[in-house]
Design goal:
This protein is α+β, with helices and mostly antiparallel strands. The chain has 2 domains: 107 residues, Beta Polymerase, domain 2 (2-Layer Sandwich); 90 residues. 41% of the residues lie in helices and 15% in strands. It is built from 8 helices and 7 strands; from the N terminus they run H-E-H-E-H-E-E-E-E-E-H-H-H-H-H. The strands form 2 sheets. A 5-stranded mixed β-sheet has the order 1-2-5-4-3. Strands 6-7 form a two-stranded antiparallel sheet. 35% of the residues are buried. It holds the Pfam family AbiEii.
Length: 213
């Protein structure tokens, strides 16, 4: 059962509509909104729709404009970004292997939790500026141990070293702390998030009992 309360009604209705649209059969929800639907930990309103297959972004853009009044912000080969009724939507080809099978719940197709964990660790190891990535990894600790997440990371990104995300989890200088955060359970407290990240590294095989709020 998905935590649909984490998305606004308008966003979730759009997601359901796109999931039933035959033109989006091979697109799957990923990122923070997918994770929020799994965990119910925070509000998330963007739709990241990834496909393992190449697609004609110009054709998809035209279709979305005509059917959904899509407002395009960015388009290039296999990438399309914009908004539909104030909901930000990204359509991207993402050819990395799946760690686990696609999950289908309430007619919504989502990347599995381990795949999302691997992608969040990759973001932290790479850019390391998005506060939500750190919060999401900390909250994921109630479902997966860090050891589980790192195993998924190395399966998805075969040539990447697990040391990079571990270092990234304790490097906070690049984080943009002005990013608005709305927690669904408890009150956002960076110190608690930070402590959980350190605890995850100390207790790599531990699945924690509660969110760090």
């Amino acid at each position: 059962m998905l935590h649909t309360e984490t998305a606004t009604g308008e966003t979730f209705e759009l997601l359901k509509t796109l999931m039933q649209d035959k033109e989006f059969t091979n697109f799957y929800l990923v990122g923070g909104t997918a994770l929020a639907l799994y965990l119910g930990h925070r509000r998330s309103i963007d739709l990241d729709l990834f496909t393992p297959f190449p697609f004609d972004s110009e054709t998809v853009e035209k279709y979305l404009v005509e059917k959904y009044n899509f407002d395009s912000d960015f388009r290039r080969n296999n990438t399309l970004k914009g908004t539909i009724n104030n909901t930000k939507i990204d359509c991207i080809t993402y050819a990395y292997p799946f760690v686990e099978d696609i999950c289908v719940s309430d007619n919504i197709r989502l990347y599995a939790m381990k795949d999302i964990a691997a992608m969040k660790l990759s973001a932290i190891a790479g850019d390391g500026s998005r506060l939500k990535d750190f919060i999401d990894i900390a909250c994921l600790s109630v479902k997966l141990s860090l050891s589980d997440m790192l195993e998924a990371y190395q399966k998805k990104f075969e040539h990447c070293n697990a040391i990079s995300p571990i270092k990234g989890m304790t490097y906070f200088d690049d984080i943009i702390f002005t990013e608005p955060i709305v927690m669904m359970k408890g009150i956002y407290d960076w110190k608690k998030i930070q402590k959980r990240l350190y605890d995850m590294i100390k207790e790599e095989n531990t699945v924690f009992q509660s969110f760090p709020v």
